[in-house]
Amino acid sequence: MKNHYIAGQWHDSTEAAISINPSDTNDAIGHYAQASAAQATEAITAAHAAAPEWARSTPQQRADALDRIGSEILARREDLGRLLSSEEGKTLPEGIGEVTRAGNIFKYFAGEALRLRGDKLASVRPGVEIEVTREPVGVVGIIAPWNFPMAIPAWKIAPALAFGNAVVFKPAEIVPGCAWALAEIISRAGLPPGTFNLVMGRGAEVGRVLLDDRRVDAISFTGSVATGRRVAQAAAQRMAKVQLEMGGKNPMVVLNDADIDIAVDCAVQSAFFSTGQRCTASSRLIVEEGVYAAFVSKLQQRTAGLRIGHALEAGTDIGPVASAEQLAQDLRYVAIGQEEGARLLCGGDQVSRKAPGYYLTPAVFVDCSNEMRICREEIFGPVATVIPARDYEHALALSNDTEFGLAAGICSTSLKYVQHFKRHAQAGMVMVNVPTAGVDYHVPFGGRKASSLGAREQGSYAAEFYTTVKTAYIAG
């Protein structure tokens, strides 16, 4: 059994859970300890005790530790990618790509540890100088999702450590193997005991302890809107700093002047790769009437040609859905779409392969209305809706008519419309003639409305959440 990591030691537990391979449900990835509330409290105690020492560490110490972590992740990207794809279900090239990104994130924040900036200003009063500096917030509780089990923990843990914070990390319940592998690497990076802690287990038990303990100074959460709202409420009750990344119902607008081949490629990659289980996936394809028929025809051809199979098999385009629960949710929404009157163009079927797994053919609904539930609620699976638009203005209005605001895309060769869309799309990230799903690790990530709350993640903007600003006045 793989155990928790608390105060620099591996700790067992009286309970364990089995991680199952969604490509082959007969294959157990491993047995992983399930933390009790008492163990979660123990991890917080360890982080609280370690935080002052790590806060006083030099930027070089922090940079060296993060660089070691990043180097080992990159050196082991093949086997870690295989683990990730086996546990989460994305294809092996996608799994290796995600691990590579995680390694690069740690390398990037190793540099950021050396680049933390401040300001020195003159006061409006004679004989006084002002210094503005950034300090770590203290203990950071990290609650990560299952869809990017290496990259998202990396982009939370790395800046937290780089800026001098202690960490308690709770991964999603269905991907403990990836979390344990990452923690095992971090455990050998030379951090003081208690600086980094891993507790695996149920959100209702372990997550609740992180939310309620006043020694946890900040909480970074990625997950569903419903859970995010509960996290925000709990943090507000005790005035803890909070950062939330939640859902998306991201639009991709295709205008009459678009290159249709590029638009279809962007749509397929955005809607279906990683089995559609990305918060930046384009689940609403808003297409201007002049190219609607041509776009739908080519989209059907491309979607029908995608190979659905075992995540580790060469040639697989789309792996399985991550869990039985997620598969049931996807199938429920396929039924809802049909009940609402949308036309199911292709896909949406549970299929069998050589090994038992959670396989679903990518579904395309056409002739949809933006008022349908399948166009308003996040499905988080390989289900895309195509919505006709009269013109650009109508397409923009449909694009913004959602409670979410994470990413928005446009496919067009018109500089006029592209520039207007970049300015008026109500989203934190805008993509032009590229898929909405796929972002760089050195620039800010985040959205608006119900998609995000708090400071942006990634890049130099991460300092806004993982540090607090202090202003000092000094008489000469």
UniProtKB/TrEMBL annotation:
Q: Which family does it belong to?
A: Belongs to the aldehyde dehydrogenase family.
Tell me the superkingdom of the source. Bacteria
Q: Which PROSITE patterns match?
A: ALDEHYDE_DEHYDR_CYS, ALDEHYDE_DEHYDR_GLU
Q: What are the entry keywords? A: Oxidoreductase
- What residues form the catalytic site here? E245
Q: Which CDD domains match?
A: ALDH_KGSADH-YcbD
Q: Where is the Aldehyde dehydrogenase domain?
A: 15-471
By its UniProt entry, which Pfam families does this protein fall under? Answer: Aldedh
Q: What class of enzyme is it?
A: oxidoreductase
Gene3D superfamilies (UniProt xref): Aldehyde Dehydrogenase, Chain A, domain 1, Aldehyde Dehydrogenase, Chain A, domain 2
Could you confirm whether the keyword Oxidoreductase appears in this record?
A: yes
Record-listed E.C. numbers: 1.2.1.5
What Gene Ontology molecular function terms does this protein carry?
Answer: aldehyde dehydrogenase [NAD(P)+] activity
Which source organism does the UniProt entry give? Answer: Cupriavidus yeoncheonensis
This protein is called: Aldehyde dehydrogenase, thermostable
